TrEMBL record:
This is Assimilatory nitrate reductase catalytic subunit. Transmembrane segments: none annotated. Residues 19-79 form the 4Fe-4S Mo/W bis-MGD-type domain. Belongs to the prokaryotic molybdopterin-containing oxidoreductase family. NasA/NapA/NarB subfamily. It comes from Pseudoxanthomonas sacheonensis. Keywords: 4Fe-4S, Iron, Iron-sulfur, Metal-binding, Molybdenum, Nitrate assimilation, Oxidoreductase.
Length: 930
């Protein structure tokens, strides 16, 4: 490959400017796309200038989604980055910058002293599926091997733990038996609880191409919402939330009744089928139809397509996992495959789609509270003894007690059972359920360490020590994607400021704790010189295990590219599919059926809370938006947070689109603007999970979510909660916007958000893509303007009265309006506005549209305040890559264009393809409307 792929050294920066291209991996979802990172380096520093999909990477073959394509935007400067260690000496004090030795010594001393006084289980670690495998490994060894606690869990508990439990109970081991090549070879694809078009768009592109090549392929989508994925299905089963187990049981009932199961396979390779068959007698399609709210004929059709298919593949994600019965949902789906022998062959199998880039790598090294390294079990004394030998630990060093999984961990912190927590690369004050309890827990903890790349997450304010970590483009190591494929992550830039790699930070603290706790003469546990040394130790621990990678090392990954596990010594390549021989990872080699009876959601609706709240993802945002929220262009598809409600439900409540509504559960409340949509069924409402305290006056939708957990996987029911929705009218409303350094503006405005009853901010791309500028847009509401709030906001937005700011002030009516104008050649452009008081009105929205569009103002500037200002209807951006708006697409469709013609004529859908499902929907809508 052309170009220097090494990260530049400090000495090289003094040389003439140079360009590098670095082969690495995307940091977003579990697809694990390969990327080529372009960077420039000169005396002023280093910066990422571009990105492309790696055409040689087998996960994506050069494709990237909108999030991946916009990664350079998220790295354009260090505004908002954590760059220097910070320390708070006493609770209530402001954190002060310190050097690394002071920060590391403090963390080591506090953890060691708490362990000495209260025991090893008085401390805990909470990690992230976005850490690299090497990062995870060092943390896991620190917690379990040195301190002696299994209190190390991860946000993967919120994501993948029910899938892990399902695989282990049914097949004997964690890890999908499938691979990405199965996407092309499947002839029936069942999507369950996955809006794959949004969550895993690159893989969805492969499915689209496969169905185009094989039109006989059937798609079945099981989802309460009519998502973009569901809109493209041959059959959409819009079931009642939480009834997935009943639906799968009904399908299996029909398969048994019609003789579409494989008795020979069941007899030769499985156990436990008869008790399941007996339980399934009552799950007739008609009985299940009443439970699920779908037609019995559709259940039968889904079962027929699945059972008669030459290759049936199921793809599932958070809609199954994030449930108090998530393990049963996974098992019930896996059992469809076992009963029909749709497993271990091309195009067939149960495929859990990983949400985070390295949730699987974290599980491989045992970085969770309920497992040990290399898929060993905490409760197994032989596994503990084996790991003690490999780590050269004294016997009975490893704890035999399960650690505290995520929800229980923060409960223990709140009760005082756990005294100290170390949080790395995750934001639990946004992502955990019932986040007010998480705030209480961190507020009561004796000692909180936060290891983070970004300063303005919801969790950082609770840190007694803030450890600045490297982020994407600056890290070295490996990740494992959804198909068990291990890829190298390489640094394109040096670390900014004093930020350090996550593994290095954990290793340095471990060495300091080891010096305090280890007996004299003991072999050092943490003498890792680099990530390769960490990986080599990790792979040695896997030898002989189901995930054996004894034959894999950095050199082979460099020479042959990403590889799947297992990859034992002597192998020439990894294993693409598992269980093709019908031998499973159980003691007797047989898979296990389980009698999975349907159970309702943890929190039923009631007269007080009559609506079911569903949560999910947006197309162009990621998790809590600490990274994707730095790219203004990614707000275009969904500019603001909303709550979606069916039109009939809105009408009954006297609600209209744009109204502020109060969403209330037993645990808390938040305010959101209403969106009216028939994509949700009557009786349900939907909100995206991304919006956090960086962008809202609240912590987001987890203010009201349910913390009930699955008893097997300990995964919380983040997808469902019972809520009520009421109109929330306020006498004072504000709309403000400013063009400039949008990240700096966001950081300055963020502290003001919580002083309002409602506030939300978003970033928007500038009309001139080469300007280097962007827009911050702020909306707020309260009974009255918070004292001095408008003055502080005006200072931040630079909209105080002066020559280039026009003001209209009516104290009697409580109105204040200011418009800031550009300078010089741009003095006919609006560059800022602040419109406060009274109700939201169309004229304000029209003025915002004019400003964002960069439209030149004609006529008198005084007309800017007239209430007769006409605004065009909002023209939503559909294609982020080519900046194609809805009006252009609808006009082309009206002239007869189909999706292919839209790609050729307008360019939409021709780059990353993330908008293709929406294009398909728009074409169908116009055709269906006549």
């Amino acid at each position: 490959m052309d170009g220097d792929t090494r990260a530049p050294t400090s000495s090289s920066l003094a040389a003439a400017p140079r360009r590098t291209r670095t082969r690495s991996t995307c940091c977003y979802c579990g697809v694990g796309c390969g990327v080529l990172i372009d960077a420039e380096h000169d005396a002023q520093g280093s910066r990422i200038t571009g990105i492309a999909g790696d055409p040689e990477h087998p996960a994506n073959f050069g494709r990237l989604c909108t999030k991946g394509l916009n990664l350079p935007q998220t790295t354009r400067d260090t505004t908002g980055r954590a760059l220097v260690p910070q320390l708070r000496r006493l609770r209530g004090d402001v954190r002060r910058e310190v050097d690394w030795d002071v920060a590391l010594d403090t963390v080591a001393e506090r953890f060691a002293s708490i362990v000495a006084e209260h025991g090893p289980d008085a401390v805990a670690f909470y990690l992230s599926g976005q850490l690299l495998t090497e990062d995870y490994y060092v943390f896991n060894k620190l917690a379990k091997g040195l301190i002696g606690t299994n209190n190390i869990d991860t946000n993967s508990r919120l994501c993948m733990s029910s899938a892990v439990s399902g695989y282990k109970l049914a097949l004997g081991a964690d890890g999908p038996p499938t691979c990405y090549d199965d996407l092309e070879q499947a002839r029936t694809v069942l999507f369950a609880g996955s809006n794959m078009a949004y969550a895993h768009p690159v893989l969805f592109r492969r499915l689209e191409a496969a169905r185009e090549a094989h039109p006989e392929t059937k798609w079945i989508v099981i989802d309460p919402r009519r998502t973009d994925t569901a809109a493209m299905a041959d059959l959409h089963l819009a079931l009642q939330p939480g009834t997935d187990v009943a639906l799968f049981n009904g399908m299996l009932h029909h398969l048994i009744w019609e003789g579409l199961i494989d008795p020979d396979y069941i007899d030769a390779h499985t156990e436990g089928f008869q008790p399941l068959k007996l339980m399934l007698r009552e799950y007739t399609p008609r009985f299940v139809a009443d439970l699920c709210g779908v037609a019995a004929e559709d259940i039968v059709q889904a079962a027929e397509w699945f059972g008669r298919s030459p290759a049936a593949l199921s793809l599932y994600c958070m809609g199954l996992n994030q449930s108090s019965h998530g393990t049963d949902k996974n098992l019930a789906l896996i059992q469809l495959h076992l009963a029909t022998a749709q497993i271990g062959k091309p195009g067939a199998g149960p495929f859990s789609l990983t949400g985070q880039p390295n949730a699987m790598g974290g599980r491989e090294v045992g970085g969770m509270a309920t497992m040990l390294a290399a898929h060993r079990e905490i409760a197994d004394p032989e596994h503990r003894a084996e790991l003690e030998r490999l780590w050269k630990l004294p016997t009975q060093t490893l704890s035999d007690r399960l650690g505290l999984p995520a929800v229980a961990l923060f409960d223990a912190l709140r009760s005082g059972k756990v005294k100290a927590v170390w949080i790395a690369c995750t934001n639990p004050v946004h992502s955990m359920p019932d986040i007010n309890l998480v705030r209480e827990a961190l507020g009561k903890a004796e000692f909180v360490v936060v290891q983070e790349a970004f300063l303005n997450t919801d969790t950082v304010p609770y840190a007694d020590v803030l450890l600045p970590a490297t982020s994407w483009g600056e890290k070295e190591g490996t990740v494992t994607n959804s198909e068990r494929r291990i890829s190298r992550v390489r640094a394109a830039l040096p670390a900014p400021g004093e930020a350090r790699a996550d593994w290095w930070i954990a290793n340095e603290v471990a060495r300091r704790i080891e010096a305090r706790l280890a007996p004299p003469g003991a072999a050092p546990l943490f003498d890792f010189a680099d990530t390769e040394a960490v990986f080599d130790e990790h792979r040695r621990l896997t030898v002989g295990r189901d995930l054996d990678i004894g034959g894999l090392d950095y050199a082979l990954l460099e020479s042959q590219g990403p590889q799947q596990w297992p990859f034992p010594a002597g192998a020439s390549e990894g294993q693409a599919r598992r269980y093709g021989d019908g031998v499973f990872a159980t003691a007797d080699g047989r898979a296990r059926f389980h009698a999975t009876a349907y159970k309702p959601v943890a929190e039923p609706i009631s007269a007080r809370y009559p609506l079911r709240l569903l949560t999910g993802r947006l197309r162009d945002q990621w998790h809590g938006m600490s990274r994707s929220g730095r790219a203004p262009g990614l707000f275009a598809h969904a500019p603001e947070p909303t709550l979606s409600m069916h039109p009939d439900d809105a009408t009954r409540r006297g609600l209209s689109a744009g109204d502020l509504v109060r969403v209330t559960s037993k645990r808390g409340e938040l305010l959101l603007p209403l969106a009216v949509s028939d994509e949700v069924g009557s009786g349900t409402v939907f909100a995206a999970m991304h919006w956090s305290g960086q962008f809202l006056a609240s912590g987001g939708i987890n203010e009201v979510s349910n913390g009930a957990v699955d008893p097997k996987s300990f995964q919380p029911e983040l997808k469902h909660a019972a809520v009520r929705v009421e109109k929330a009218a306020f006498a004072w409303n504000l709309l403000a916007a400013r063009r400039g350094d949008a990240l700096a503006l966001q950081i300055a405005v963020q502290p003001l958000l919580r002083e309002c009853a409602f506030a939300s901010l978003s970033l928007r791309a500038d009309a001139d893509p080469d300007s280097g500028q962007a827009w911050l847009v702020l909306r707020a509401a309260a009974e009255t303007a918070p004292p001095q709030w408008l003055q502080r906001l005006a200072e931040v937005l630079q909209l105080q009265p002066e020559e280039h700011v026009l003001e209209y002030h009516d104290a009697r009516r409580g109105l204040l309006k200011r418009v800031g104008w550009g300078h010089g050649a741009h003095n006919d452009r609006i560059e800022g506005l602040l419109l406060a008081g009274g109700q939201r009105d169309p004229a304000s929205e029209a003025l915002l549209d004019i400003a964002l569009a960069g439209t030149a103002w004609t006529g008198s500037r005084l007309a800017v305040f007239t209430q007769r200002l006409a605004g065009a209807a909002r023209d939503a951006l559909v294609c982020q890559c080519m900046q194609v708006k809805e009006s252009s697409i609808r006009a082309a469709i009206a002239q007869g264009a189909d999706v292919d013609a839209l790609k050729k004529r307008l360019g939409c859908g021709s780059v990353c393809g993330s908008c293709v499902p929406q294009l398909v929907r728009m074409c169908r809508e116009i055709v269906d409307s006549g």
